[in-house]
Design a protein that fits this description.
174 residues, single chain, alpha/beta, 5 strands, 44% helix, five-stranded mixed sheet, Nucleotidyltransferase, domain 5
Length: 174
């Protein structure tokens, strides 16, 4: 198996980070587009493992949670009419939990916009924190049960979240 030289791998990854397309990178670096794809997957797996191993026992005071919409192959409303849409085509949501002060991505998950996805990211977030935090969300209903299930009473909700979800009565000083 051929292994790209470190300089070539660095060039490809740096160009990907700049936002260039895989096809243009394959032309610039004079490698197959499959090589770019394999390197991207390999780098992603390494980043995932590093994040999972090192982002533990985080001491934070405020965590901001949100979801980011995108799509794979085609927007959900167009998947039925798309030619040869692969499995998994359609809307994709990246759930994020970010330390408001340091901007550290404490937890993330890519999935749909369901309560199950909210539960996955909230459980993961809870497992990475070392202390009680103030949690801010956008008020999406999927958070209701997920926050309660993951944190129980061991979380403070921001005043705006408290107003949106009056059944939470745990807000207090940090």
């Amino acid at each position: 198996m051929n292994k790209l030289p470190l300089a070539k791998r660095t060039q490809i990854l740096a160009t990907l980070c700049e936002g260039s397309s895989m096809r243009s990178i394959s032309r610039i670096a004079d490698v197959s587009i499959n090589t770019v794809g394999k390197l991207l997957v390999e780098a992603g797996e390494a980043c995932l493992a590093t994040h999972d191993e090192t982002v533990r026992n985080v001491k934070a005071s405020r965590i901001q949670c949100n979801e980011i919409w995108s799509f794979c192959y085609a927007k959900q409303m167009n998947v039925a009419d798309a030619k040869a849409a692969p499995g998994g085509a359609g809307d994709v949501w990246t759930w994020t939990a970010i330390d408001a002060d340091t901007k550290l991505m404490v937890s993330y998950f890519v999935g749909d916009r369901s309560g199950e996805s909210a539960m996955i990211v909230m459980d993961d977030l809870r497992s990475r924190l070392s202390n009680r935090v103030q949690l801010t969300t956008d008020g999406h209903k999927a958070y209701l049960e997920a926050v309660e299930e993951a944190f129980g009473a061991d979380v403070d909700l921001c005043p705006a979240c408290e107003a949106v979800r009056p059944h939470y009565h745990r807000i207090g000083p940090l």
